[in-house]
Amino acid sequence: MALTARPPSELAGFDWEYAPAPEARDIVTIAARNQLYIGGKFVEPHSRKFFKTVNPATEETLAEVAEADEVDVDRAVNAAGEAFRSWSRLQPARRARYIFRISRLLQERSRELAVLETLDGGKPIKESRDVDLPLAAAHFFYYAGWADKLEWAFPNRSPRPLGVAGQIIPWNFPLLMLAWKIAPALAAGNTVVLKPAETTPLSALLFAEICEQAELPPGVVNIVTGAGQTGSYVVSHPGVRKVAFTGSTEVGKLIQRGLAGTGKRLTLELGGKAANIVFEDAPLDQAVEGIVNGIYFNQGHVCCAGSRLLVQESIQQPLLEKLKLRLGTLRLGDPLDKNTDVGAINSKQQLAKITGLVESGVREGAEIYQPECRLPERGYWFPPTLFTGVSQSHRIAREEIFGPVLSVLTFRTPEEAVEKANNTPYGLSAGIWTDKGSRILWMTERMRAGVVWANTYNRFDPTSPFGGYKESGFGREGGLQGLLAYVDLN
Amino acid sequence: MATAVSRSGGTPPTGGPGKPFPPPPPLSHLGSLMRGVRSVDQVGVEERAAALGKRSIKKASKLAALDLVIRCMDLTTLEGADTPGKVAALCSKAVRPQPGDASVPSVAAVCVYPAMVPPAVAHVRGTGVKVASVATAFPSGQTFTSIKVAETREAVIAGADEIDMVIDRGAFLSGDYQKVYDEIQEVKEAAGRAHLKVILETGELGTYDNVRRASILAMAAGADFIKTSTGKVTPAATPPVSLVMMEAIRDFHHETGRSVGFKPAGGIRASKTAIHYLVLLYETLGPTWMTPDRFRIGASSLLNDVLMQIAKERDGVYQSGDYFTID
Amino acid sequence: MDVRKTYKMYAGGEFIRSESGRSYRADGVNVPRGSRKDVRDAVVAARSAFGGWSRRTAMNRGQILYRAAEMLDGRRAQFVALLGADRGARREVERAVEVLVWYAGWTDKLAQVTGTVNPVAGPYFNFTLPEPTGVVGVVAPEKPGLLGLVLRLAPALCGGNTMVGLLSESRPLPGLTLAEVLATSDLPAGVVNLISGRRAELLPWLAGHMNVNAIDAAGCTDEELAAVEKAAADSVKRVVRLSARDALSPYAVTSFMEFKTVWHPIGV
Prior knowledge:
The structure holds three protein chains of three kinds.
Chain A: E1 33-34, E2 36-38, E3 41-43, E4 50-54, E5 61-66, H1 70-87, H2 92-108, H3 110-121, H4 125-146, H5 150-153, E6 160-161, E7 164-168, H6 174-187, E8 191-195, H7 202-213, E9 221-223, H8 228-236, E10 242-246, H9 249-259, E11 265-269, E12 275-278, H10 284-296, E13 308-312, H11 316-327, H12 348-363, E14 367-369, E15 385-388, H13 395-398, E16 405-411, H14 414-422, E17 429-433, H15 437-446, E18 451-454, E19 473-474, E20 487-488
Parallel strand pairs in A: 1-5, 7-8, 7-10, 8-9, 10-11, 12-13, 12-17, 13-16, 15-16, 17-18
Antiparallel strand pairs in A: 2-3, 4-5, 6-20, 11-19, 14-15
Chain B: H1 29-35, H2 42-52, H3 59-71, E1 73-76, H4 84-95, E2 109-112, H5 117-124, E3 130-135, H6 145-157, E4 162-166, H7 169-173, H8 177-191, E5 195-199, H9 208-220, E6 225-227, H10 239-256, E7 261-263, H11 271-285, E8 297-299, H12 302-315
Chain C: E1 9-11, E2 14-16, E3 23-26, E4 29-32, H1 36-55, H2 58-74, H3 76-82, H4 87-104, H5 110-114, E5 116-117, E6 124-132, E7 135-139, H6 147-158, E8 162-166, H7 173-183, E9 192-195, H8 199-208, E10 214-216, H9 222-232, E11 238-240, H10 250-254, E12 257-265
Parallel strand pairs in C: 7-8, 7-10, 8-9, 10-11
Antiparallel strand pairs in C: 1-2, 3-4, 5-6, 6-12
């Protein structure tokens, strides 16, 4: 569906409505009732409780999913502990082969998984198909290769696995976050208990089927579905040696506090409020693409989203003109439609949060811009939004919105850009747009952020370490450094 | 951004055997303007062009697109071996691409060498199909300005409605932007009422920065259309090069209010490719550019592929070339 | 009654006889007796394939090497029979698959382990990256026929090089059959070229070829090595003969790579 309502005089050309192009949904079969995956088997929950997972684009219930209680989590951790004894002693090249198998299976079943991811989470099919799935498969492929090469990773060290890793992942990139957690853990010789987010449990359960197809030894991977309570059981279980959490800073702090004094290893990947900095000499049309990709990709449900645009004052006007025009070509709608650019907001709660913060932006005096957009009747939707006249003290400039909302601020000099960009408790990522190489390097030296993108944005690769400074968390995922979280270096 | 730039003036250099060439004229306003053109990020532009290639255009929207592709086509033959007979067959196909199917429109124009303009004019007279002639020592452009101007004039006298000229890439790549600019202006004047397409020959320009620069230069000098390629050099039209040119057209329109048309040419054989260009056009320049007055595709074998795709959409089965006429 | 296989060499992505039309007897069958022109043509193919192969992503090269392991694993029975159908043969095939998988997992890690960012004393960003050297001439050991070749091929490809290999003279069949594995592994044409024939006849042409960047002299005797090193000097080729200890090592890969160092100022 075309977004922009243009004045009639301009429509003298050819108003081209793209016909619906839905991806076939029947490639994936969703069981009405889904169990936990423990010790290599799908099992009924001890709690005997189930919760619903919903398609956020239509509000239809997709399935019922088991809710793991403390006993279920205990069983899972024990299974993982049991499996660890043999898994950690397996010849590393053998471990590698299992992980290679998983990677190849993800590639083979990628269309099925992409459709499932879109149904469960609301992201456009072209993203789950072209970004989430290839990256997830690549992540397993990369770490598979490390399994039998650990002695080359850390000079003069003989790395050993830790034991059972308890892993909690968010709803914005369910399968990809699963890959980021499970691949390095397994490669290093650990076993895992993973809890997917309660609004997006389905791809993790299909992943469990893939583990079965790969004939992964029972108990190496365990999936316990549930909400925050289930997560806290995983994190606090004494049999868990290492905790990895990706989610909000608020919950991250709770976990960190809860683990104090337990000796458990911890990595946290939390929120962000990244500055996307555009200098006057930037290639403008490509910078616009980078800004759009930075905040509207995945509806802005991205911890490293470029949610603050810092534009050099001298080109503010032409950049904003182009940006607003570009917003008008974004296609919002059915996530399963191959032409959709902006999908559904993941949940009712998240929608309420976004709406609240946007209202605060208007109240606090920033100027809102939204292209004309027809929102579907059912489902959770928010149009791409842009605020100008934003200052550092506005809530929309300080708090993570986690939605398709961009706040625009200005700067005059590089020093000022650095100052404003770093003026936040977060420190996950940043973007820099300029034609000048030395300036890129000067800026990156000064940015207090774990990932800096220059003349691009939201690029991920299994070889490239990802993680934050300050309240965006600690630890890195991806690359050689990504192994550190999962090994004991003696 | 240049709208009208005065010439630096001066006589052509008179060097020769034993005679040194005079020093080049001082840096003109145009030269520094060209060097100040904003750069284009290769990776970014290629990603955007590729992303737009993933649009899935089906059913009614596909049929509408295919119809537009035909209406915007410059059906082309540019071979040393062209004869009046070949041109007659081309014109026949151009006017009536699908015999017995009145719903298939005529193409926009036929595109031929200057010597073939008379037979082309004779065969499309009264049909609404235009005659475009290449000129200015197409495809190389490596001859004297006076010859290029004379060729243009004669093609128009012979009946050409449109002139497709090539820029002097030698001058451009050696930084003599003034020469390129002046030549375009002279050819435009010689073309009179015929509309002028300026071919940049992007495959020889080396960088997207240069493509943007050349686009702006051509538009400032008065081009009615800017065109990617002669089709005689590889690479010819590509989606990213086209995107760069469209963005330049958009910026030029924004600054001057003048709408310049866009024509990709060379190597476009598949309907899917043509539709990709339409998507790029639609999402960059919008609905008002989706018309033969502002968009053309230079192609030859594309036409039959489009006809086969239309038949497939209607009949629901894949087609064979046996059922479609060759020109 | 069997339809017997004609053994052919593998060059430019195709299975070919020697342009000389000659053959020789090895392991009870006729095997192409490659000529200097075959070597020459193979180098042309390898050079032509180098640009594309070296510019592919590391992950893509890793996937192709892994696919070669998949294909070789699928033909286990064929290779075991070829190698003598005993326990040694089974071990050799298993080991060859392992080697392919091991190096498949290095392509996207080499730069992380052997490349560096260098803290120079000045406002410059300075980094060093390993890059493939180009066309590697590989002298395969006389034995083992399969594993000896795979131990040379995998590191060469891992680094992004292309290669022209002189197969074992006495045991060329496993190498020629390996070509069938490579041809079904999504490997681009010309990346690997395998020539069978008389070592003494072909080695000087490979060693002296001005368009070959390095020689993997694993299969050379000491005399042959000396001759190769001498011929190599005319084009300053890198000549490397690794010991068995280096069999599985990222440094087996970087022995055939260059290190490129880049400087860039840091300033506003």
